[in-house]
Amino acid sequence: MPKTILIVDDSSSLRTVVKIALGRAGYDVLEAGDGKEGLTQLDKAGKVHLIVSDVNMPNMDGISFVTEVKKHPRHRFTPVIMLTTEGAEGKKEQGRAAGAKAWITKPFNPPQLLDAVSKLILP
Question: What's in the keyword line of the UniProt record (predicted)?
Answer without folding.
Answer: Phosphoprotein
